[in-house]
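Support request from a user on the community tier.

User writes: "When I paste my structure tokens into the form, the page sometimes reloads and wipes my input. The last time it worked, I copied everything first. Here is what I submitted, just in case something in the input itself triggers the reload:"
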């Protein structure tokens, strides 16, 4: 069952309850009162109430849903480590506030609406969202009038009724086809316009006839946009409900032409970024060639005086001098042609325990959905280190106009039931396999030219499903005597973003944080 099917199914399950509720009340009341009295009270309930602004009502309910709020404080986050934050420069603060307002408005345009399914409803309707391609048509399914809501009314309430349906944003037109001869007892006005009216006399026409007309109701999109939302308002007497329609282009799948039985080298590419560490990257290449001969290796290199990196299946991309850490990651990721890639730092070494097949097994298991899987380290003697240092969680707490609070702490969210050696986490080491398209969608912020790790996983927060598994290992053997590399890695030569904002200030600005704490 695909996602859209699930959405519509759930919507029907919710909204049909309104009619069932009405029928249940009728069934219960029939044992104690006559049929005229049964429907007199429910009808009065919705006939005489004032029309409601359902969009405003949904907004208010969204606000009530929030269970956490107020003003968070990083001093209350129970993790060790320095609190990064403090007073942001007034100019940056004002600029961020303006950008956040734009971001909220853009998000609100396509945010899933909260639809209230009203009690004692004389109408059945889809409480979820109907979807249609721009400039195409969709049948407005699920809309009907409750059978007993009008038939059992006292005779005095059988005057002409008007059911109106109109496009509140005027993004399309409405059309119905009458399956029977339209007479004086049922008049349809406004076909092929943005406002449709069905006038009928409840004494002279059956509800089945009305519903047979509603079953032919079609909305046609007339305004082109790849993603925009329409609201149809339906009124019967003083009762009104909203039907939400999402107008959007269906995105095309991106399919890789590999078969399940294909060799791993057709499915995976190894990528890395190097800077002034040719001894390290040469060693990495040799180890990959040893354990996965034929596997493609992509290397971004922004060293001052480039040297050729020798090895099988190596592509070396020369960048401008000290172009940057995340810029290099973006470069090699853009050149990956396989469905998956393995990220390794240039000072890592493959061993017999670097079993990439274990990663692949989980990605290709239809029972689970993962975007990235991290692993663990071992030393040159084969001793494995399974430490909480190598996987972490990220929590973000609601703040105020000064921003939210972010906490990184050691631990995991839960075990992966199908693979108990794996844990669901928010952050892993710089040795992982990932889905190429998933990580491309997040990218690596090129502002981080010298230092950046948690920064990427904050960007990926809410976008990538990440696990850490204890069945793949690699050696991390850093070059501690490389003076030139250390000068750039840990200070001395700062990046433009650090000089302009300050590293911490940029993180606060970009993510709308008041503070963050790294445990």
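"...and here is what came back when it finally went through:"
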């Amino acid at each position: 069952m695909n996602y859209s099917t699930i959405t519509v199914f759930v919507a029907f399950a919710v909204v049909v309850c309104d009619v069932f509720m009405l029928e249940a009340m009728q069934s219960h009341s029939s044992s104690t009162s006559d049929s005229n009295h049964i429907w007199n009270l429910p009808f009065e309930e919705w006939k005489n109430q004032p029309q409601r602004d359902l969009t405003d009502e949904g907004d208010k309910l969204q606000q009530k849903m929030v269970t956490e709020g107020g003003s968070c404080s990083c001093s209350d986050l129970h993790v060790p480590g320095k609190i990064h934050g403090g007073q942001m420069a007034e100019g940056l603060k004002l600029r961020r506030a303006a950008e956040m307002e734009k971001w909220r408005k853009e998000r609100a345009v396509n945010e899933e609406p909260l639809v209230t399914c009203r009690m004692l409803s004389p109408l059945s309707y889809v409480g979820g969202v109907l979807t249609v391609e721009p400039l195409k048509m969709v049948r407005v399914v699920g809309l009907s009038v409750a059978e007993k809501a009008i038939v059992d009314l006292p005779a005095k309430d059988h005057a002409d009724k008007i059911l109106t349906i109109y496009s509140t944003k005027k993004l399309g037109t409405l059309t119905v086809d009458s399956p029977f001869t339209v007479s004086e007892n049922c008049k349809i006005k406004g076909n092929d316009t943005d406002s449709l009216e069905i006038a009928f006399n409840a004494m002279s026409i059956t509800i089945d006839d009305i519903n047979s007309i509603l079953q032919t109701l079609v909305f046609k999109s007339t305004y082109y946009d790849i993603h925009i939302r329409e609201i149809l308002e339906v009124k019967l007497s003083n009762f009104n409900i909203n039907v939400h329609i999402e107008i959007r282009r269906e995105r095309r799948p991106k399919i890789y032409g590999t078969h399940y039985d294909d060799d791993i080298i057709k499915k995976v590419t190894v990528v890395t970024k190097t800077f002034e560490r040719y001894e390290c990257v040469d060693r990495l290449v040799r180890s990959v060639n040893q354990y996965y001969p034929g596997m493609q290796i992509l290397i971004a290199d922004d060293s001052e005086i480039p040297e050729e990196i020798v090895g099988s299946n190596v592509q070396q991309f020369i960048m401008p001098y000290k172009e940057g850490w995340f810029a290099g990651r973006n470069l090699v990721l853009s050149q990956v042609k396989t469905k998956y890639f393995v990220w390794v730092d240039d000072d890592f070494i493959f061993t017999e325990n670097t079993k990439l097949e274990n990663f692949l097994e989980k990605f290709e298991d239809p029972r689970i959905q993962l975007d990235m899987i991290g692993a663990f380290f071992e030393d040159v003697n084969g001793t494995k280190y399974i430490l909480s240092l190598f996987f972490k969680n990220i929590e973000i707490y609601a703040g105020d106009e000064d921003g939210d609070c972010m906490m990184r702490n050691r631990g995991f969210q839960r075990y992966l039931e199908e693979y108990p050696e794996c844990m669901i986490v928010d952050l892993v080491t710089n040795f992982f396999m990932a889905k190429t398209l998933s990580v491309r969608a997040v990218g690596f912020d090129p502002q981080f030219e010298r230092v950046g790790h948690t920064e990427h996983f904050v960007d990926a927060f809410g976008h990538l499903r990440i696990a850490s598994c204890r069945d793949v290992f690699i050696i991390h053997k850093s070059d501690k005597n490389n003076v030139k590399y250390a000068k750039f890695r840990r200070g001395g030569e700062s990046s433009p973003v650090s000089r302009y904002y300050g590293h911490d200030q940029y993180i606060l600005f970009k993510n709308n944080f008041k503070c963050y704490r790294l445990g």
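Agent notes: The reload is a front-end session timeout and is unrelated to the input. Confidence is low (pLDDT under 50) at residues 1-47. The CA atoms of residues 287 and 350 lie 5 Å apart. Escalated to web team.
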